Structures are given as C-alpha cells and as structure tokens.
Amino acid sequence: MMQWKSHLSTHSNLESAITEAVTGLSAALPDHPPDLLIAFPSGYSPEETLHLPKLLSEKLPHRFLLGCSAGGVIGGGEEIERRTALSLCAAWMPDVELCAFHLPEDAVPALDAEDGAWEKAVRTARAGSPHFLLLADPFSFDAAEFLSGLNRHFPEGKKIGGLASGAVQRGMNRLFLNRETYDSGMIGITLRGDVEIDTLVAQGCRPIGQPMFITRCRQNLLQELDGKPPSEVLQSLYHRLAPRDQELFRQSLFLGLVMKEAQHEYRQGDFLIRNILGIDESREALVVGSLLREGQVVQFHLRDAQSTPCSSATRRSTWDKAPPRAPCSFLASAAAPSFTESPTTTRRSFTASSANCRWEDSSATARSDPCTVRLICTVTRVPSAFSGLNKPRKP
Q1: Do the Cβ atoms of 129 and 195 come closer than 8 Å?
Q2: Would you list the domain boundaries of the chain?
Q3: How far apart, in Å, are the Cα atoms of 171 and each of 82, 198, 205?
Q4: CB neighbours of residue 348 within 10 Å
Q5: Could you tell me what percentage of the chain is helix, strand and coil, using 3-state DSSP and rounding each to the nearest 5?
Q6: Considering the entire predicted model, what is its pTM?
Q7: How much is the pLDDT for 323?
Q8: pLDDT, position 168
C-alpha cells in the first residue's frame, strides 16, 4: 500500500540534520527503501548542500530523490522560516512508475516541435498520461515557457511544483535529483500508474495598484514599468495605500505576472506570483525571482492571510470518501511572517506552506484499501502565449 512519511530537523549542521530527520522517519519505515525521497534544505550554505544527495544515499537508501533549496520549509506539520531546517519526506508507491530528468536551460524543445522531441526531453512517453513533479531555478530557466510546451504535448497530465529559492543570484540555488546536484535548469519526476493527483490554487496574495507593462528589463532585472523606474512607481503606490497595506508593503511585496495576456481585464487570481528579491540601486532596477520580457503585463501584490481564499476547505468536502494521502503546497516566499504570523507554527490539517517549495505530509498512515490513491498539491498555472499589446485595465 502507498505510504508517505515526513520529518523535520532544525539542526544547524546539514549532516546532523539529515541524520536526525532520517532517524525520525525510521520509527515507522516499511522494510524496504522508499520509492521517492523529497528533500528541502533551508538556510544552509550552497557549499554544504552540494553534498546532500550523497549524504542521503548513505543514511537512507532510496530509488529516486527530488528536492531544492528553499527559503523556509514544512515537515511533520511544523513550519520553519528564517533559520536552518531540513524537511524530508519519504514515499512508498507500489504500482507507480517513476522516471527522473534534468533539463538545461538551452535544451527545451520548441513549442511546435514534434511530440517525440518533448518525450525525449522529459524522458517519458505520452502513453498513460504521466503526471509531473517539477522544480526549477528561476535565475536560469523560463518555467512558464516550458510549461506552455508541456501542456501542449502532455495535455492530460497534471503539472505540479515550484521554484527553488533562498538565493539572490544565479548559481546559488540548488536542485537535487537522484545522485546529482544542479545549480540551473529544471528537474522533474514523472509519475504514471496507480496515483491520482488533484490540484488546487490558493494564492494568498491580492493585487494593489494597476496592471502595468514592462517597458525595459534584462533577464530578471525589472528596469521600467510604463516608461518609469520601478522606484518611482513603488513610491507613488506606497503613498496611495491604507496604513495596514503600507505595513504589508514593507515586508510582503510581490510581483504578479499575468497568466493570460490576451485578455484585457485582470482580477485577483489572474497572476503568477513571483518574489521580489531586492533592489539593484546602480541600475535603479528590481531583482525579481523570474525571467522577464518587455511587453509583459505585471501588477504588484501583497501577501495577506485575509486574502487567502477558503477554496481548500470547499475542495476538502469532496475528499470525504477518498481522503488525500499526501497534501503539499508550493507558494511564493519573502522575508516576511508566515500566514500564521509566526516563524514556527504547528499545522493540524491541510495548510498553505511557503518558500517557493515547501512540502507538508499528512503524517497519517496511508489507508489500506487498494483503490487509486489521491495526492493533493497546489499547481502553478501556465500563462497563455502573448498576443497583442493592449493597455490592461481593471474592471
């Protein structure tokens, strides 16, 4: 039967944290290695995390490893931000076929390439409608462009995942796949067989100000919005906000990238939320956790617990007859309080988790009936291709 277990360690030394997390998992491990091990270290140096796959292989044999660096983590129901922590999740998935791939930034097939080119890139065939668990480095890989192609060539499979975080420049994030560590590109695990994935979007952010066009940018540097420096735009926006929003502005500001740019009106939920990593004062530019392009429609957002929709509670009512075995979520992060306004929070149910890549296991033993198992995850939706440069407007 399918089982998922997780454990979290806050030890400041990564090797000791791995030992502690594996020991915590070992209390209820089956008598065979897990099929999939998912690891999210937070707060450790890039040099330390280079050796994570090797250390995990020595301490807990497994078939597949997937993970990345993070700005914060969840494990065993506990949420950690702003200090070192390692979240480790192990899954035993009988009758589920897994396959791993790493895709460099220059190896993404063209959108209109043959299906075979995409099958080769992700090392899996379309047959059987595989699902995808994906992690990417935002400094080197255009995840939105890749997902557009993946949706076109694998339309029936679910795509879930997030972006590595914790770094402020290219080459400092870490992606872990089996025995390898990468600092760029995308990694993924495909799942095919007796597994059901359900998806749910709950952004936890709301837009402020007006949608604007990027009129000048370079990679992930945002240099102009509607012909104005970002600093000028932000200063004007700040002074128009209510006092509560001004406080949120100082600690939880994000940039939203419109997902369907062909439309002319944008509402909450129409944006792909990305981190604002800092300000490049020499260029008067914002450093954004995503590759940008001129002509792209964006809008600033605030992370606000009060704006998080209760759609998860609504969706949970449909899971009564087949409760999820392993809920997890991927959410944007910032140097700001968590949704519960505390850096350490115990969660007792299906919860949001932050740091671009955070994992929460249900921690309960998997149910023993043989029917298809539910794996519940949030999904990052995919923007449509850009078509036309029409001035966006709010309804």
Answers
A1: no
A2: 3-202+309-378, 205-306
A3: 21, 33, 28
A4: 7
A5: 20, 35, 50
A6: 0.68
A7: 63
A8: 76
Structure token digits, residue 332: 């944007």
Q: Report the alpha-carbon distance of residue 330 to residue 328 in Å, rounded.
A: 7
Asked if residues 50 and 161 have their Cβ atoms less than 8 Å apart, the reply is no
Q: What is the pLDDT of residue 133?
A: 92
> What's the token pair of residue 120?
């080769």
Assigned token pair, 215: 């009129």
pLDDT given for residue 82 in this prediction: 77
Q: How many residues does the chain have?
A: 395
Q: Measure the CA–CA gap between 239 and 275, rounded to whole angstroms.
A: 22
Residue with tokens 């200090």, as numbered in its chain = 83
**Closest alpha carbon to 379 in 69, 158, 91:** 158
Q: What is the pLDDT of residue 148?
A: 84
- Give the distance from CA 188 to its chain's centroid: 12
Asked whether 4 and 366 are in contact (CB, 8 A), the reply is yes
CA distances from 286 to 178, 256, 320 (A): 35, 13, 45
| Rounded Cα distance, 285 and 252, in Å | 18
Give 333-389 as a 3 state SS string.
Answer: CCCCCCCCCCCEEECCCCCCCCCCCECCCCCCCCCCCCCCEEEEEECCCCCCCCCCC
Which segments in the chain show pLDDT lower than 50? 310-314, 332-395
343: region left, alpha or beta (phi > 0 left; psi from -120 to 50 alpha)? alpha
Give tens-digit pLDDT for 321-380.
Answer: 566 666 555 654 443 333 333 333 333 222 222 233 333 333 322 222 222 233 333 222
Tokens 């975080």 -> residue:
165
The pLDDT value recorded for residue 86 is 93
Give residue 66's pLDDT: 95
| Number of H-type helices and E-type strands within the chain | 8, 22
Would you give the end-to-end CA distance of the chain in angstroms? 50
